[in-house]
Write a structure and sequence with these properties.
Layout lengths: L2 E2 L12 E14 L2 E7 L4 E7 L5 H9 L5 E10 L7 E12 L13 H6 L1 H4 L3 H23 L3 E2 L5 E2 L11 E4 L2 E5 L4 H11 L1 E9 L12 E10 L3 H22 L1 H6 L5 H4 L7 E3 H9 L4 H4 L9 H8 L6 E4 L12 E2 L2 E5 L1 E6 L4 E9 L3 H10 L8 H5 L8 E7 H9 L20
Parallel strand pairs: 1-2, 4-6, 7-11, 13-14
Antiparallel strand pairs: 2-3, 2-5, 3-4, 5-6, 8-10, 9-10, 11-12, 12-19, 14-17, 15-16, 17-18, 18-19
Helix pairs in contact: 4-6, 4-14
Length: 435
């Protein structure tokens, strides 16, 4: 038996006998020739079992093996431009570890409900494999950029005593006789940590009990939330465009194979470099109201942008678009007021190009104790739950800004996916919590 080698590394072993430990992805039976497509989690390679060149027991195993059976295969690596991945294994031995039962997911078309019910198996498909490897690179890039630019990772709690984004989208749970909620955001806690560390970020799951069935919504998703002391709205946008550009370029550099599997046109991604275009909310509303589609043009000043509005605006540019200075009435209670117009907030959303909508929401946070107390009253929030948050404005308050980037929406855009459910291993959507 040859040395065990990961499929990703076979190019370094041409002419050598190696062993691959993995699973059968599919098989083509040509009688005396058995073509076995093998995968081991790092990639795929075709193994060829020729009856004259292999033991009867090994050839019998090659004939008997079924889709997704676990297998240990030994063979000599050959360079072959016609083979998938450019290399092939001339098999000398095939050992079945476990002969799989009839596999429910076949090459035929399956409905999305069937695939979601079998998500634990669907993950093995080449497209899902590619998406989740891109996701891993997006997450690594997020951490690397922030770690290299003066941000400290400080974890925020999952269980919280109050709402951050809105009381109607909370998952409530019992906390030893008191009400507690699954976090919607770690931002408020970040605002405390930046007063100790200057620049911080938290990264973890967040929860929104939104009764939404759109292709852009999950009830559980991952969000990274950087926060910065002594940073205004301009600095916030500057950081965002550098951050997102780095993530996209890192994926292009490291995941070309995966993007090819997904048939992603990479030309639009190559254009994602600073600076990004900017548009005031007022101008965005005026533009949308001029459109012919009533689903878009019917928006009134003061309303938050919905999916069709974000798509329309994003399609006008080949880079992400900043829409900034939304009305105070449609943004969260903690947003700083625009000093030039108290009806506006120093808020900003980043809309991805190609119609993918918002991937970042953020802006400058109010530094004023008086304004924050006023906002808590206006939003009918329980003041006692925010006593600690108000303290941040009593003891060394400073101008500060931050934002939250949704990992799944970012992955959907980078991969060119139609629906967000494919961007997380086990998606949680309205009506689905299995498997």
């Amino acid at each position: 038996m040859g040395e065990q080698v990961y499929i990703r590394d076979v190019a370094q072993h041409v002419g050598e006998e190696i062993t691959v430990k993995g699973w059968l992805y599919n098989k083509t039976d040509k009688g005396r020739l058995q073509f076995l497509m093998l995968r081991d989690g790092t990639g795929m390679i075709q193994g060829v079992a020729f009856q004259r060149e292999i033991s009867p027991a090994a050839f019998e195993a090659a004939q008997a093996i079924t889709q997704e059976s676990s297998v240990i295969a030994t063979g000599t690596v050959r360079a072959d431009a016609r083979a998938p991945g450019g290399h092939e294994l001339s098999l000398s031995d095939v050992q079945i570890v476990q002969l799989a039962e009839e596999y429910p997911i076949t090459p035929k078309e399956h409905g999305i409900e069937f695939l979601m019910e079998n998500r634990h198996l669907w993950l093995r498909s080449s497209q899902q494999w590619a998406v989740l490897r891109v996701r891993a690179t997006v997450i690594a890039a997020i951490r690397d950029w922030l770690d290299d630019h003066g941000f400290l990772l400080v974890d925020a709690p999952i269980l919280t005593p109050a709402a951050c984004e809105g009381t109607t989208t909370l998952f409530q749970t019992d906390y030893f006789g008191e009400n507690a909620y699954l976090t919607q955001s770690g931002q408020l806690y970040n605002e405390a940590t930046i007063m100790a560390f200057g620049r911080t970020y938290c990264f973890g799951p967040t929860f929104r009990a939104e009764k939404s069935k759109t292709r852009r919504h999950l009830t559980e998703f991952w969000m990274v939330e950087p926060e910065m002391a002594y940073a205004d709205l301009e600095e916030c946008m500057r950081v965002e465009e550098q951050f997102v550009s780095y993530i996209v370029q890192r994926v292009l550099e490291q995941r070309a194979e995966e993007l090819a599997i997904l048939e992603r046109d990479t030309a639009p991604l190559e254009a994602i470099v600073p600076p990004f275009p900017r548009m005031r909310y007022d101008d965005a509303i005026a533009f949308l109201q001029e459109q012919k589609d009533p689903a878009v043009s019917g928006i009134a000043w003061g309303e938050d942008l919905g999916a069709p509005h974000e798509t329309t605006l994003g399609l006008q540019h080949n880079k992400p678009l900043f829409v900034h200075r939304y009305p105070t009435q449609c943004k969260a209670f903690y947003m700083e007021a625009d000093p030039e117009n108290a009806q506006l907030s120093l808020s900003v959303d980043m809309l991805a190009p190609e119609g993918y909508g918002e991937i970042i929401g953020g802006g400058q946070r109010t530094a004023s104790l008086e304004l924050l107390e006023q906002r808590i009253v206006e939003h009918n929030l329980p003041r006692e739950a925010f006593a600690w948050y108000l303290d941040l404005r009593r003891y060394g308050s400073v101008p500060h800004s931050g934002f939250g980037l949704g990992v799944e929406r970012t992955v959907a855009w980078v991969c060119g996916l139609h629906h967000i459910r494919q961007t997380i291993p086990f998606p949680r959507t309205l009506g689905r919590i299995y498997p």
